[in-house]
Design goal:
Mean pLDDT: 93
Organism: Podospora pseudoanserina
Low-confidence stretches: 1-18, 1024-1055
Structural class: alpha/beta
InterPro entries: GH115, GH115_C, GH115_sf, Hex-like_dom2
Distance between the termini: 52 Å
Protein name: Gylcosyl hydrolase 115 C-terminal domain-containing protein
Strand order of the largest sheet: 12-11-10-17-16-15-14-13
Keywords: Hydrolase, Signal
Oligomer: single chain
Number of helices: 25
Largest sheet: 8 strands, parallel
Radius of gyration: 32 Å
Shape: globular
Length: about 1050
């Protein structure tokens, strides 16, 4: 197994290119110790020796290695067949690179001569060993011995990767990292067996990008995906230590029928076998036949009950054509268009289908069990298995996700003991309900890791097949998945950031790897909030908790970091960086900017702001920028990847057939105000927006006989309460021009009595180029605020010129209540709520982590929390003892204040945010309990009972409206609660329930928002002085690196 020692991982960056998680077998520096240096083996110019009788895939890999090393060192070398005898008589004294499988003549001879010992890898699956040896005449050599053909192939490609060649050398144009010396380390390493036996990718949904790109490369309207294309795919797979492929198969009408791997180029299937790739077919393509091969005009309907003979003949053709090539036959039968089969009794039909298919396999291979077979439990098929349809045990059960990255089902009971095993089919992109997503990589790496980790721990390790669409731009999640499939123990939740640093070092060199790795991590967090295609202008709140501003700020900052790194990279690295980092981040930032600015444009228009028009212009500019990025992509490298990013993504909020991708980008829903027109004079041309309020929008429609003004009363600029424990220790008022833009407005604040209140600025001028100002209200020193102060501070605002003397009042509620000095936890804040990130439970009152089962903070998983999630661990122990697991508790101390007699209680509710996932075990459906103080546990289901959907299979009722949210939110009533200290107690029944955040709503003040309010402050008991208890504890994140105001430009606009 690969060694993953993160202590040396960062140090390894100095070596240049690294194989991400493998124990190192080469270095590039002369050892400082003279004796060690004399033993170093420089293979920079070493010829490559292989055995003539090894499979052709070994020879292909050896020749690839020669080309790789030439790109790295500039030195050409030979690849030759050799025997032990020929090496011994070779005039070249070495060193050599020797590669072969344990069954090859060359490795057998080296073993029999005592040069190497391969007993520790013989008989293993896809395992390889490296060692340095001395042959006769002291000829030095690096030997790569594989337990089988793919074992040695993986060893060869590992040497290439560690020497400086990325697996994405062609698919992302990563340049080889140059080295004049490559030293084989003087040690023996063993790599393998892999965690997952068959692991690979599914090329799917090939229109409009992949097919159009490939045709353009050949100056054609349509061009088959032939051996030229698949040779590149097979090379990539093997360099990622993958071995399994579902080929491209999408139906087409321009021209029909679409991609057919087996006949588009008759050499495809044999080439796969030569390389060592196992070919299978998609979930609805049985018996090694592409769906597009079925011609109803010639063969009749795809209907088992009406056309069994022709369908059976079709099956036979596929098995016969596959011959003895290494294959994994998909069995079963669905409808042609990824739909349920047209039958009255699907289970009885499938029983007969299985019988016939098994008979065909026996006819051509001598036994029903002679070859690998898989049954994909996709969509409606899963319900047949749940209803009792259980094929023979040698058939692999392939459990899917829900097309949205949530694994649908995993093995239970004796399902792990099936000889055929179980596996997982997982989507990195999808076309279908509720919305398609295939434009860019929108996979949160922590979430991907969670789902695949569960699959491994639950024993679904026979097949992992990843739907990657066009392959590009899914390089990163595919890399992660294949590394996990090779060695699931090599990555943890904690190590994901360091994994990305190593990935960046491999692709772009060590100099900027830390920064690029952090960019990729932040990108993963941001796309994990919601996939691009699921975002519309209404997604993020423009009024609650500065949510939209904060999201936009993070994207903007990320884009600036990408631009900074781009400027520092050498020219030869920039195309790869643009493909793997730059274009994904810049396109994402632009897309989110368009969505959020469109939302602000509508809000500003409703508020009658002049700046609505400036925002509309900014949206149009970003819309054009998005296509500039596409054209930059298309022109890169003389058009090598032109059209690969041709999938449209900008869409209207509501159109017919919303599940499908847009066929052309459109920009909609922009609003404009008449900027030469004055506001109704009773309101005046100066507008005030107090954060979180709807007052200026309400003033967009006005009845003077009803609505008081100068100052306004019904729709006054009322700010959220400011107290010592609020998540943000500032309050914002936006001052804006809403009249004739040709007439500048002067505004000023009246003096205020409270000298501890800091307000800036106190006046300004608004005009056509600067239509908005921002006022910041804060209390820098809470010790100067009277204890138990509980009032609304009024600040007068005046403006000139005005037809009627303009006067309004900003209203700021201030509360300076504090809990007793002994309290440690989360006090009520912001006018009546508490927001808690799940990892911040109190260890003093919770089940200790020394217990057999306990709660553990899970870093790098979650989008509603900056600090991760909370889950039961150890995973298998918690699953194995559910009663004990349900007793484990995480406790969050809270303190409620009272602005009324202590006897008055409030009906308190809480909303919990749970990282999305499905009930993968029918016997252990996910449950939660959230209670207060010493209340008994009240467990409730996370998800409701599944219901049938004709296009998605059986799904929980929460799925269609909320799966795009990436979290499940559940509201819990905690009952009537009074002033004082209380404990919020969290319990679950399963380690697959990951809590991200709890929001306790004490007074019904929590506003609707997508992400929920940010974490409020934790106070420590060590802060004993009341005047100093200002929440410097772990819950406070301050403005820090994600401070939203970094996006605010001149006048408060995002230009």
């Amino acid at each position: 197994m690969r060694l993953l020692i993160w202590a040396w991982a960062a140090a390894s960056l100095s070596f240049g290119c690294v194989a991400l998680l493998e124990e190192r077998i080469v270095s590039f520096e002369v050892d400082a110790d003279a004796a060690a240096a004399s033993a170093q083996l420089d293979i920079a110019s070493a010829p490559i020796l292989v055995s003539e009788d090894d499979p052709i895939g070994v020879h292909i890999a050896a020749n690839s290695l020669a080309k790789d090393l030439e790109q790295i060192t500039g030195i050409t070398r030979s690849v030759a067949n050799a025997t032990f005898a020929s090496i011994s008589s070779e005039t070249n004294r070495g060193p050599f690179i020797i590669a072969g499988s344990v069954n090859s003549t060359l490795i057998r001879d080296l073993s029999s001569q005592g040069v190497i010992n391969v007993s520790d890898i013989r008989g293993k699956w896809e395992t390889f060993k490296t060692t340095t040896v001395r042959l006769s005449g002291s000829r030095p050599a690096l030997v790569i011995a594989g337990s089988d053909k793919r074992g040695v192939i993986f060893g060869i490609h590992t040497l290439a990767e560690q020497s400086g060649q990325s697996p994405y050398h062609w698919f992302a144009d990563v340049p080889a990292q140059k080295h004049s010396q490559i030293f084989a380390l003087n040690k023996t390493t063993v790599h393998g067996e892999p965690t997952v036996r068959y692991r690979g990718l599914f090329i799917n949904d090939e229109e409009p990008a992949l097919n159009t790109w490939w045709a353009r490369q050949h100056n054609a309207t349509r061009y088959p995906l032939d051996t030229e294309f698949y040779a590149r795919v097979f090379d990539l797979l093997l360099r990622l230590k993958a071995n399994y492929l579902w080929p491209a198969m999408w139906k087409s009408w321009t021209p029909p029928p679409g991609n057919i791997f087996f006949i588009d180029d008759p050499g495809n299937q044999q080439l796969a076998d030569d390389y060592g790739i196992v070919i299978s077919t998609a979930h609805h393509e049985p018996m090694q036949m592409a769906t597009n091969e079925w011609n109803e005009t010639e063969r009749g309907p795809w209907d088992w009950s009406k056309n069994k003979a022709n369908v059976t003949k079709f099956f036979e053709e596929g098995i016969a054509r596959a011959g003895k090539n290494e294959s994994y036959f998909t069995i079963g039968m669905r409808g042609l268009g990824d739909e349920a089969a047209n039958t009255q009794n699907a289970i009885e039909m499938l029983k007969d289908v299985f019988k016939v298919q098994r008979g065909i396999i026996k006819k051509f291979h001598g036994s029903e069990t002679a070859v690998n077979q898989v049954w994909a439990l996709y969509k409606e098929v899963a319900s047949y298995y749940d209803a009792g349809l259980d094929p023979d045990g040698d058939i692999t059960l392939l459990f899917p996700d829900d097309n949205q990255g949530n694994v649908y089902r995993l093995p239970t009971g004796n399902e792990t003991e099936r000889p055929g095993g179980t596996g997982v089919y997982f989507h990195f992109e999808y076309v279908g309900l509720p919305r398609s997503y295939k434009w860019h990589n929108t996979n949160n790496l922590g979430k991907v890791y969670k789902e695949l980790l569960h699959s491994h721990l639950r024993g679904a390790n026979r097949i992992w097949i990843m739907n990657v669409g066009d392959i590009k731009p899914m390089e990163l999640p595919l890399n992660l998945a294949m590394d996990l499939a090779w060695d699931a123990s090599s990555i943890s939740f904690d190590s994901i950031p360091q994994y990305l640093v190593q990935y960046a070092a491999r692709e772009f060199g060590p100099e900027h790897a830390e920064e690029i790795g952090d960019i990729l991590m932040e990108h993963s967090r941001l796309v994990g909030m919601r996939r691009y295609e699921h975002i519309d202008p209404a997604t993020f709140s423009t009024t609650a908790y500065h949510e939209a501003e904060r999201v936009l700020s993070r994207w903007d900052y990320l884009a600036s970091r990408v631009n900074n790194v781009t400027a520092l990279l050498p020219a030869e690295t920039k195309p790869a960086f643009f493909q793997l980092v730059g274009q994904p981040v810049l396109s994402g930032a632009t897309f989110v900017s368009v969505a959020i600015k469109t939302a602000f444009n509508l809000r500003y228009a409703r508020e009658r702001r002049n700046s609505a028009n400036l925002l509309a212009s900014s949206v149009l500019e970003h819309f054009e920028t998005s296509f500039d990025l596409i054209e930059e992509w298309d022109n890169m490298l003389d058009g090598k990847w032109a059209d690969m990013m041709s999938q449209a993504v900008y869409d209207a909020v509501e159109e017919p057939k919303m599940w499908a991708n847009p066929s052309r980008d459109i920009l909609s829903n922009l609003s404009y105000v008449q900027i030469r027109q004055n506001m109704q004079f009773s309101l005046g041309n100066l507008g005030l927006y107090a954060e979180g309020s709807s007052s200026p929008a309400e003033q967009g429609r006005w009845a003077e006989s009803v609505d008081a003004s100068m100052p306004t009363t019904n729709f006054a600029p009322l700010l959220p309460q400011l107290d010592p424990f609020a998540a943000l220790q500032e309050r914002i008022v936006e001052v804006f021009h809403r009249g004739d833009h040709r007439v500048p407005l002067n505004w000023t604040l009246d003096p205020w009595e409270e000298d501890w209140l800091h307000i800036t600025p106190t006046g300004g001028t608004l005009n056509s180029t600067h239509p908005d100002d921002k006022i910041v209200l804060s209390i820098p020193d809470w010790s100067k605020v009277p204890v138990e102060f509980n009032k609304t501070v009024l600040i007068g605002v005046r403006s000139t010129p005005a037809r009627y003397p303009y006067f309004d009042q900003i209203r700021l509620p201030v509360l300076n209540f504090v809990p007793p000095n002994t309290f440690e936890g989360y006090p009520e804040s912001s006018g009546g709520y508490i927001s808690i990130e799940a990892p911040h439970f109190s260890p003093n009152f919770s089940t200790p982590n020394t217990s057999d089962i306990h709660f553990l903070a899970i870093p790098n998983l979650g989008t509603r929390s900056n600090t991760g999630s909370l889950a039961l661990r150890p995973f298998l122990s918690a699953r194995g003892d559910v009663p004990k697991a349900k007793e484990v508790k995480a406790v969050y101390p809270i303190y409620l204040f009272s602005d009324s007699p202590p006897s008055v209680k409030h009906n308190v509710t809480a909303t919990v945010y749970i990282n999305a996932g499905l009930d993968t075990d029918p016997r252990l459906k996910m449950e939660l309990s959230l209670t207060l103080d010493d209340q008994p546990a009240r467990f409730q289901r996370v998800l409701g009972d599944y219901v049938k959907n004709p296009h998605a299979g059986d799904i929980p009722p929460e799925w269609l409206p909320h799966v795009a949210d990436q979290v499940w939110t559940k509201k819990v009533n905690l009952g009537e609660v009074g002033e004082g200290r209380h404990e919020v107690v969290w319990r679950v029944n399963s380690p697959e329930v990951y809590l991200e955040k709890i929001v306790v709503d004490v007074r019904g003040v929590v506003q609707d928002s997508y992400l929920g309010p940010g974490e409020t402050r934790w106070v420590d008991a060590t802060e004993v002085m009341r005047g100093e208890r200002r929440g410097r504890g772990k819950g406070w994140r301050g403005k820090g690196k994600w401070g939203w105001r970094s996006r605010m430009g001149v006048g408060g606009l995002w230009m």
